[in-house]
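Hi U.,

Before I forget, here's the chain from the pilot set. I'm dumping it here mostly so it's searchable later in email.
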Amino acid sequence: MKKLLMSFILMVLLVPANVMAADYSDLSGFYFTPKLSLGSAGGFTFGGSVAVGVDLKPVADLPLRAEVEGGILYSSDTYANVETSYLRVPVLASVYYDFHFKNKLNFVPYAGLGLGLSYSSVESTWSNTSNSSSGFDFGFAATVGTSVPVSKHVLLDVAYRFGSYGVSAHQLLIGARFAF
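Structure:
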């Protein structure tokens, strides 16, 4: 985890200054972004997601993005000889505001909110007995992060997300945004 975070910080410091000055007029505004998620929600949680979205900056000069994201989160916990595993599959529609301003490192902070549904499955095992339940829950998320352009079509993202997918979740998201 430390190596991944240090690699991201190093990449931020090495981004060429002329990336922000690039001409974005030929971009459609659409993007694809895979994300890795680490955090806590019923124990240590890991997972990933994929999102597709539209950035309104290249097409309408608005600092807004809208995306639809589907993911999977897994965690397990053992307490008092009861082993519990959680599986969550959230689908969110999110809107982000990008704070475009001039800075030497060319990063773009952003904040966003998302709403959606989450399928949750919980399985508990103790003394050769097993119990499971599943169902759908309302999901929401509040996200703050920053993106750093490494080329005209690729941005690296790191973000913190607080969400609720049947249980509260704190997540560190690391990903790349591919614009086309």
